[in-house]
Fold this protein.
Amino acid sequence: MPKEKKFSQQPAAQKAESLIASLEDHKAHDLSAFSLPQGDPLAEVVIICTASSARHARSLADAAVEACKANNFEYLHTEGYQEGDWILVDMNDIILHIFLGPSRERYKLEALLNDAAPLSIAGSAPADFQ
């Protein structure tokens, strides 16, 4: 059963493009985005990126939340903000993971998303963490 959308009715992939543009403007590294199989209870899209420092990671999370407010995208909560090593931003139909490099390599989330279809990201090469 799809999650109810209380805010923007744009498809998640379109919203992801807007969020990715904001992340790129804030110098996120190694952006990857995946469309999850229809009906997945987690979300519709997962975005993964790398930050250069904990401060940079928090800045990227702040930029994502601001993009949600500016575009009327649903924003539920953020986890891991204080530590900055792995920040998760939950936007209901989109989940954003912001990692520091060593944590991204350790957890290898892309490898867990083998049923997901990669989304094309203009101007970015996908990270090789699989």
Observations:
- The chain has one domain: 12-113.
- Residues 28 and 124 are 10 Å apart (CA to CA).
- Helices lie at 12-25, 54-71, 101-107, 109-112.
